[in-house]
Amino acid sequence: MTPRLPRDVDGRRLIQALIRTGFVLDRQSGSHAVLVHSTDPGREVVVPIHPRPLAPGTLAQILRRARVSVDDLADLL
Question: Cβ contacts of residue 33 below 8 Å, gap of 6+?
Fold first, then answer.
Protein backbone atom coordinates (compact mmCIF):
# COMPACT_ATOMS: atom_id res chain seq x y z
CA MET A 1 0.00 0.00 0.00
CA THR A 2 1.36 3.38 -0.99
CA PRO A 3 1.71 5.83 1.91
CA ARG A 4 -0.25 9.05 1.71
CA LEU A 5 1.38 12.42 1.24
CA PRO A 6 1.32 14.61 4.34
CA ARG A 7 -1.07 17.55 3.95
CA ASP A 8 0.57 19.97 6.38
CA VAL A 9 4.03 20.46 4.82
CA ASP A 10 4.96 24.01 3.88
CA GLY A 11 8.00 25.05 1.87
CA ARG A 12 10.22 25.81 4.84
CA ARG A 13 9.63 22.42 6.48
CA LEU A 14 10.26 20.66 3.17
CA ILE A 15 13.52 22.56 2.66
CA GLN A 16 14.70 21.53 6.14
CA ALA A 17 13.85 17.89 5.38
CA LEU A 18 15.64 18.00 2.01
CA ILE A 19 18.74 19.51 3.60
CA ARG A 20 18.86 16.49 5.95
CA THR A 21 19.01 14.23 2.86
CA GLY A 22 22.04 16.02 1.41
CA PHE A 23 20.56 18.94 -0.51
CA VAL A 24 22.03 22.41 -0.18
CA LEU A 25 20.45 25.77 -0.92
CA ASP A 26 21.88 26.92 -4.24
CA ARG A 27 19.96 30.15 -4.73
CA GLN A 28 16.66 31.85 -4.04
CA SER A 29 14.63 33.97 -6.40
CA GLY A 30 11.76 35.72 -4.70
CA SER A 31 9.62 33.11 -2.97
CA HIS A 32 11.23 30.08 -4.65
CA ALA A 33 14.32 28.29 -3.35
CA VAL A 34 16.50 26.17 -5.61
CA LEU A 35 18.23 23.24 -3.93
CA VAL A 36 20.81 20.91 -5.44
CA HIS A 37 22.11 17.65 -4.02
CA SER A 38 25.66 17.90 -2.69
CA THR A 39 26.89 14.67 -4.33
CA ASP A 40 24.63 14.59 -7.42
CA PRO A 41 24.24 18.06 -8.99
CA GLY A 42 21.72 16.64 -11.45
CA ARG A 43 19.22 16.40 -8.60
CA GLU A 44 17.85 19.93 -8.53
CA VAL A 45 14.49 20.96 -7.06
CA VAL A 46 12.60 24.23 -6.81
CA VAL A 47 10.58 24.68 -3.61
CA PRO A 48 8.02 27.47 -3.24
CA ILE A 49 8.23 29.27 0.11
CA HIS A 50 4.69 30.32 0.96
CA PRO A 51 2.93 30.48 4.33
CA ARG A 52 0.38 27.83 3.35
CA PRO A 53 0.94 24.07 2.94
CA LEU A 54 2.10 22.81 -0.42
CA ALA A 55 -0.52 21.37 -2.75
CA PRO A 56 -0.35 17.56 -2.92
CA GLY A 57 0.59 17.55 -6.60
CA THR A 58 3.36 20.10 -6.03
CA LEU A 59 4.76 18.12 -3.11
CA ALA A 60 4.63 14.87 -5.11
CA GLN A 61 6.47 16.45 -8.04
CA ILE A 62 9.19 17.90 -5.78
CA LEU A 63 9.69 14.50 -4.12
CA ARG A 64 9.93 12.77 -7.51
CA ARG A 65 12.55 15.24 -8.74
CA ALA A 66 14.47 14.95 -5.47
CA ARG A 67 14.22 11.13 -5.57
CA VAL A 68 12.86 11.05 -2.02
CA SER A 69 10.08 8.63 -1.11
CA VAL A 70 7.03 9.54 0.94
CA ASP A 71 8.24 7.15 3.65
CA ASP A 72 11.60 8.92 3.79
CA LEU A 73 9.86 12.29 3.99
CA ALA A 74 7.73 11.09 6.90
CA ASP A 75 10.90 10.04 8.74
CA LEU A 76 12.52 13.43 8.11
CA LEU A 77 9.62 15.60 9.26
Answer: 11, 15, 25, 27, 46, 47, 49
Coarse DSSP helix, strand, coil percentages of the chain, rounded to the nearest 5 percent: 35, 25, 40
> 11-76, what's its fold?
Metal Transport, Frataxin; Chain A (3.30.920)
Listed by start position, the domains of the chain span: 11-76
pTM of the predicted structure, to 2 decimals: 0.89
pLDDT at residue number 77: 84
Q: Please check whether residue 33 is in contact with residue 25, taking contact to mean a CB–CB distance below 8 angstroms.
A: yes
